[in-house]
Amino acid sequence: MFTNYKMAFLNYSVMMLLILLITMIQNSLLPSFFGTHIPIHLWIPCLIYWGLYRRTGETVFMIYFIALSIASSSSLLTGYLLTFNGLVLLTLLLFKRIYYTSWVFFSTGCALTLIFFPLLIWVFAQIVGGPFYFHGFLSELGGALLTWIFSFALLSLFQWIDYLTITKPKEHKRPGVL
Amino acid sequence: MHFFNFDIKKALLIIFIIIVPVFLMTLDRSKTENNILFRSFAFINSKIQLFYYSLSSSVYQTTDTYLNLIHTRKKNRELEKENTQLKSRLTLMKEVQQENKRLNTILNFKQTSRIQFIVAQVIGRDPVSEYQLITINRGYTHKIKKNMIVVNEKGVIGYIFRVFSHFSQVILLTDPHAAIPSIVQRSRVHGVVEGIDRNKCQLKYLKSRDDVKKGDIIVTSGRNILSMGGFPIGTVTEVKKQQHGLTQEVTITPFINSSQLEEVLIVNKIHSFQEQL
Asked: What ipTM goes with this model?
């Protein structure tokens, strides 16, 4: 996938910085536009992208990176996030066997993960005995819809970065094409 | 290749995405969060949040300044008038204050106290919006310590959860992980306030015969980790007593609105009146 180590380093550095910027924009800047009642999870499209277009080892690394990045600014436990991300990766590995048109698959993956995120947090809360907070059906739906819309822009952005650093996703020949 | 054949890659995958996370879930929070990696992430995140905050606040201020200019002249006249009135009142108040000080010294009055606050601005919120942690721009260089109470003009917001050099994280009282030792102001019954959602908390660990009524005010008790008592938390909105149960369910509506927090006050110290003199 990578042509040389310099490019791989550049790709990883840019991607990690971008993921940090994306995960932090949702809790610093976006509440000014959409309010604090709509849960936007921009880190989920990042996770899905790595799960679909990168090797499993690379995705595991990114799972830990995303989990640490979010847990360090949240009251949510790191273990919860890691378990959730791990389950998403396992599901993606299974779904990769029936892989078809990539952007449809990407958006479906995002939508399903967004729906299952509060559900899984609830399951964890029941099993481990931790707390659970639900925004309400409409807020959750609004948040999922907004994240899903943003995910298309993020997909194009990631593909563009991969194109520049010569690590093209398997299905795409040109950047920005969904 | 059969799925159950031993493969080092599969084994590593299972270890890293199932065993390690599940093990981390069982560990105490302090064991997973007091390491350099976690703190480095928090540091980088706070810098990014600060950047976004300065970006949004500068845009907000520019817009605000422009909108304010329209009404400035009219407001200026009104304020000048009000200022003259306040100046005359202030002179009178100074006289009263001086008299008050003299009388308090004579009476050796020790109970009166004054609270010292540290003002901070909210620079970020919890990235997982199901939880409610806020980041403020004051850290241990500003004398912030863990478990200090954070308030605003309405009441208790939460307490300091994690402290770093130039920023801290505050867990709101409405967060499901928050727990604040509290007391019913009227009947002096003790309990613990825990978050349910953005608009609701619950007062837990009350016996079924404890005296709590709808409309009662809940304040911090000053026990355990949060050493300062008497700060208002919220009003009791619902009391459910089970017929044969040992406890009762008390729902509280907090005085604060967690989604509209911009500036907060951290309770630093309570000076006695004698210290002030």
From this structure: 0.79
